[in-house]
Amino acid sequence: MAAAMLGNRTKSIGLPFVASITKLKLICNLSNMAARCKAGRNKLYKVKPSTRKLMITEEIRNVFEMNNMVIVCQFSDMNTAEWEDLRYTLGKDEIMVKMFPNKITCKALENTKYREILPLFLAATVVTYSKEAKVKTLLTELKKQPKMGILGGKVDEKLLSRKDVVDYAKLPHLTEQNGQLLHMVTEHSRRLTTLLEQNQMNLITNLTQYVTEDEVKS
């Protein structure tokens, strides 16, 4: 009888323990399944990004690689009319304006030579770009729009800070530089020609005088 009572007590203690172990295993299995599902979703996202994001990524890289000037600007509270006016004004000088998602932009440029300017893409940003380096024209037009300011960018494959962009705009245009150089070369050539002609005339005068004096003595 004592043995039977001991067996019943052991059974009554063991059943809750077994139930707890079973419940714990079930919780662990569910947790592992959830982790595998999450890992699977993350893996699927990394391997197969959306077609739209791939297209935007390709467009961003083309903008930076195919244009001599790419300037990143920050903006705030611009309405539709202001955007349209800005695009129209800059478009007349063949300067394009495009807004890209910052996260996709950083991903597109992270392994390129432009990765050093990624810190610019933190706030509300827009990219202005053109085939030619029309920095002075861009800054002149942006001064008329107080809701937008430059942050930095790249010009002629050189990464520039905001100060560098402003300093670059102060440089004379390439056409103006060529004109100044041509004027210097032409002026130097004219002076050299005048000097040679003057020396030649002096030589002729001296020779003529020498011959005349020699004839008089004879």
From TrEMBL:
<dbReference type="InterPro" id="IPR043141">
    <property type="entry name" value="Ribosomal_uL10-like_sf"/>
</dbReference>
<keyword id="KW-0689">Ribosomal protein</keyword>
<dbReference type="GO" id="GO:1990904">
    <property type="term" value="C:ribonucleoprotein complex"/>
</dbReference>
<protein>
    <recommendedName>
        <fullName>Large ribosomal subunit protein uL10m</fullName>
    </recommendedName>
</protein>
<comment type="similarity">
    <text>Belongs to the universal ribosomal protein uL10 family.</text>
</comment>
<dbReference type="InterPro" id="IPR047865">
    <property type="entry name" value="Ribosomal_uL10_bac_type"/>
</dbReference>
<dbReference type="Pfam" id="PF00466">
    <property type="entry name" value="Ribosomal_L10"/>
</dbReference>
<keyword id="KW-0687">Ribonucleoprotein</keyword>
<dbReference type="InterPro" id="IPR001790">
    <property type="entry name" value="Ribosomal_uL10"/>
</dbReference>
<dbReference type="GO" id="GO:0005840">
    <property type="term" value="C:ribosome"/>
</dbReference>
